[in-house]
């Protein structure tokens, strides 16, 4: 019956006109059949584990064989490359570092699309350029498969505890199928629109996050130098129009809040170089769409300068430290 | 008895060493004696009205006689200049456009300090450079009077409804006395620390507000151009780490929220030129304290460019409109 | 004999290991044999004319047939597409608006590489991403051809008078062959290094040019508002360390210099949208190489904002006008 | 006769209406009578020496007595404070670190204006806010004296060799008198206009200089990372529209030029903190005149960040080093 639903669904699917219905029925939804997983890094590994916890047989691969061991011990089947994953699973999740990796994993010589089954559901949770997501979706469609972008917000901790937020772009009719799997790994699964809008939402959020974090750091630093107590200043901002997530939930000033990286010498959290990467994506999409983003652009440059000055692996809230006067500096 | 308390308080008052206790008793606190008010503009006028509503006899002045008429009809006594106000009231509130006006009203030829009574409480609610507040406090102290800075957040609407927030700087022992009056005009009265910290808190909040507003506008514009629905994008940001007051309470995109200036062609609200003024103060204090504020500084420049391009009197959320492509532009 | 020289040259050519020497001799250098030209727009048209003036038979194409008429009347042979050009000429120059056009003209279904002869010299004078230049060079090498990037500085006037500057990247052994043709169209032909460095030099120059122009405009505007006479200020800058091409050769303030766009309501010259495009390329290469370019990035954003506000087709020195206060603005 | 000329000159002096002609004749111009000098720091000391070399008897003072020793040995008379200088000399030059020092030296309890003679010529070579220059001029005028601002460009080396450039603001009729003295210390003495325009010219030049230097550093760094040889890139820029003083005269990349601080680990030259100070002045004047200076403002912030990160005393061309990737950084 799922097959019927899926088949009928394609009748309205604007971008799926080449799909051969005879093959659609091969993708099983209701039962917990195998799910493929490509990319078992810091994020992918706990995500795949959560699929196993929810009872899904997982068939996985990674370019680094050692990354696969832990999952193998938990019962996952490990294969040599993405094409073999696609040969055995008709629902596949990919979690990769950047656009070139995604292009290779989907369209490379041993890529998913080499052996993808018609009707397969391909979900990419990497954070990449939305233009690449659109390219992958078009390539998948030619093979009769469906591609969705579903980048996450939340770090390794949220990946482990299954509390990620997924922002999903792609054919709306596929959203229920995608949500079934993503719900095993995340607390929120939000449908954003056509392919690429998941990436767009992720990129937009992180650009505003970076602006808010640098802005909060500048503001707290200025206030402290003007004689304000940091906790009091944070309290005032948080009851006023200066309030933002960086001021009330992840304050960058050591001692203002408990349990955030600023209280732990900016270790853990979301690294400066990862933020710089996301801001680079935001900049690229802004340039391509001729959209002025003056503060987003300057935020990108500031995180880039921080990477050049040794802050690459510190949490992105360390911009407070970067802007403060060094001890001994004039 | 209030006099006793006030006298004993001075024993610990670091900056009040020249006060002649014999004169302290002349300022009455418990009873509703006359309160002076200087500056009856868009903000000062409704503030003074609220004092009258709360039963305080008001003695007021303004450089524009016509600004005084309404208050006079409500029973206020109108005098010629600030010195005459100081001659008749030992608690005075000032609400003026900028630093030079404050300097003139306090230290000019017909200024408050020409006739101020010893022990008087002088509260300045103008938004000015904290360095000027400190200068006024020092000048007041020489005359045996107490100066506090108490700038407000909230616009004309909040002034009319008595819902302003006051951020107060000055001797902590005076805060209770100041709060008695300020509570008639505001919903929140927050003690911030030594003289100038009220201004510092106000300036810091508005700098972060400007950064958040421009950041939100850039982000919403970018997301829309990438194919996201504006309401959906706002919803995603507001449940994520991009959340800020400008995204969840005062969204700059027409149609996303009700009852904000973006829904009314950016009329009303907080004018771009007023924001530019506050950002100029933030820039000055940052320069004077050698504090880097890269985003705050760029925000200042953007609002300055907007003023040059005809946005001076539009609400500051019109930066969304400024960044969007003009119809017909390439 | 030229063929011999060319053949021997390849013995040291690091990146030309697949070339079949038997075919190298087919490219003629000393005699004025046919030269192909793809892209007959505002720049390409006068450039191709200069080749004809220097006695080269030209075989050309453009996506817009009407662009070819003038050249045809001058004796050029017009063909249908780039592949046909490559079928008939072993030296080809391309002059196209942007990276996607270049990719299509070289690697598309009717692209040059479909019919390119081994040993052909392909010179691209478009201003594009250096990474695309490298891709084209690699694709050309696979076909036994040599690709060089040779973007120009100088506008339509310099193209007409043969006074362009070419910045050339590619195998050094080919530079003499490239210079033979480029010298017909330009006054300076500069060898920059490996493939892509011509683009890099062009992009770097224009980024610094944009920074200098905006900086000069801000500075002149500030000086004027501080009471300085604009001509005097320009003179002082030009004898001091503030001197730059924008201050001493192309001053953006109307009335300071003769014969520049600022004296002609910013008509002619180098359009704001073209500068915005080049700054977008600079931003992309900076992002890809993780290079901080804070002023270059802000310059990009300012030209982007100007495009959004109706300045797209005005000369890029109109940033002086953009930053000045509008008449009637506050 | 000089006195006659000076007296008649005042008949057209718009801002000199309070001058008592009877006293004007007391200032001697043609003969080498005593010249006062206040501020014997790194710049003031060699400047005063050059006056002595030119045969002027110098009477000097400095807040640090040890700064006066060298000059005393050369025959200068050392007195206790600026008032005493003014008591004995009717031509005085001041060279001080910042606005507050200037205010104190002129209007403080032992300031010049306490004992200034009518008709005295007071020349301030400090780099300060032009608004302060105007205030000093107004204060001097009340005492019947003439104040001119004459900030310098050129560093300690130029001060020692008498090769400074002076930018002079003030009554045009006084310029000849000022030039007589300034020519002993500088190679160029430029009249800029009314009081404050000397400062304006200096501030404008240095703002554009800072923009050019950071822009050159970004550009050179980007080009190098794109594979260009730094010397070749500098050569290309210098023959193109990217040319500026920082690229052709003071290149910030080690090895590109001889005899500049970049070749000496950025020692000597013009310190980053001094540039940050001048940019702070530019920012203040821009804020006060409501002039948008986006690049100037960001340049200020970058130099401010550099000061916070340990670059305060390095030459301002070290921004190239600041923007480059640290060894070992990602």
TrEMBL record, chains A, B, C, D:
Molecular function terms from GO: 3-hydroxyisobutyrate dehydrogenase activity; NAD binding; NADP binding
Location within or outside the cell: Mitochondrion
Pathway the protein acts in: Amino-acid degradation; L-valine degradation
Pfam family, one: NAD_binding_11
Location of the active site: 202
6-phosphogluconate dehydrogenase NADP-binding domain location: 34-193
GO BP: L-valine catabolic process
Domain 3-hydroxyisobutyrate dehydrogenase-like NAD-binding, first and last residues per copy: 196-322
GO cellular-component term (any): mitochondrion
Xref: Gene3D superfamilies: N-(1-d-carboxylethyl)-l-norvaline Dehydrogenase, domain 2 (1.10.1040.10), NAD(P)-binding Rossmann-like Domain (3.40.50.720)
EC number(s) on file: 1.1.1.31
Keywords in alphabetical order: Branched-chain amino acid catabolism, Mitochondrion, NAD, Oxidoreductase, Transit peptide
Signal sequence annotation: none
Record family assignment: Belongs to the HIBADH-related family. 3-hydroxyisobutyrate dehydrogenase subfamily.
Protein name: 3-hydroxyisobutyrate dehydrogenase
Species this chain originates from: Xyrichtys novacula
């Amino acid at each position: 019956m799922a097959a019927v639903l899926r088949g009928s669904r394609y009748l309205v699917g604007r971008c799926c006109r080449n799909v051969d219905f005879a093959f659609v029925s091969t993708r099983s939804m209701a039962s917990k059949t195998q799910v493929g997983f490509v990319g078992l890094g810091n994020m992918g590994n706990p995500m795949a584990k959560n699929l196993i916890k929810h009872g899904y047989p997982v068939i996985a691969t990674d370019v680094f064989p050692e990354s696969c061991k832990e999952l193998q011990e938990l019962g996952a089947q490990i294969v040599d490359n993405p094409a073999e994953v696609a040969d055995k699973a008709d629902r596949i999740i990919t979690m990769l570092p950047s656009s070139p990796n995604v292009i290779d994993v989907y369209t490379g010589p041993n890529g998913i699309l080499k052996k993808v089954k018609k009707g397969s559901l391909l979900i990419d949770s990497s954070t990449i350029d939305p233009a690449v997501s659109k390219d992958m979706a078009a390539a998948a469609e030619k093979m009769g498969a469906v591609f969705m972008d579903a980048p996450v917000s939340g770090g390794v901790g949220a990946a482990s505890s299954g509390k990620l937020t997924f922002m999903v772009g792609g054919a709306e009719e596929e959203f229920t199928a995608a949500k079934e799997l993503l719900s095993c790994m995340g607390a929120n699964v939000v449908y954003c629109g056509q392919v690429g809008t998941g990436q767009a939402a992720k990129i937009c959020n992180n650009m505003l996050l970076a602006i808010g974090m640098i802005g909060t750091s500048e503001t707290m630093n200025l206030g402290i130098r003007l004689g304000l107590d940091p906790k009091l200043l944070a309290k005032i901002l948080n009851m006023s129009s200066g309030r933002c997530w960086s001021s009330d939930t992840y304050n960058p000033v050591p001692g203002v809040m408990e349990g955030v990286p600023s209280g732990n010498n900016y270790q853990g959290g979301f690294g400066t170089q990862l933020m710089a990467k996301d801001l680079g994506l935001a900049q690229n999409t802004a340039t391509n769409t001729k959209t002025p983003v003056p503060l987003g652009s300057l935020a990108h440059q500031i995180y880039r300068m921080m990477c050049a000055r040794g802050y690459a692996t510190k949490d992105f809230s360390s911009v407070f430290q970067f802007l403060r006067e060094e001890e001994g500096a004039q």
